[in-house]
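Protein in question kept underneath.
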Amino acid sequence: MEFLIIASTHFLALLSPGPDFFLILQTALRLPLRYAFAVCAGIAAANAIYLAIAVAGLEAVKEMTLLMLALKYLGGAYLVYIGLLLIKAPKRAMDEAGTTSFLHAKSMKRQFALGFMSGILNPKNAVFYLSLFTVMVSPETGLGLRIFYACWMTATVLFWDMGVAVMVGNPAVKKRLGRWIFGIEKISGAVLTLFGILLTIR
């Protein structure tokens, strides 16, 4: 029963589009699918770090004001930076990758880093996982089971995000969205910028 409650809560949280969704969206549309998968892997790795902290029982991390403030402002600045890059990006064809922006660099390492930084600099991830383990996981739950929960949630994040990438990166979908790619990038940039501002002022 405990596992079902945790898994359901986590999955419902994934259904709400956040910064990660828009990063995956613009990558899957502009680059080959493997690069979007690299972004997904980076996001999942960042989630895994916060889950490892939660499994270790370090709930006090979320009470470290300076650390959470640093994550808040760094994360906000990062999202605003990414958002502005998309907003300022010139109009170009679907298969024409940018030459000056690391957002569209054909590098697995850079795309992984893009996703990882998005996940690790989001203090809401830290608070969510630490709160989840504090409130929903019984103190009697053994370490092995806690590790299983963490692995399950990491895998869920990875495969859910990869599913989004596959859906958006489908050739038929790309063809339909090709004429709207410029507007999609601008909207994604505006949303990411807004996320960054809201993260900073809340």
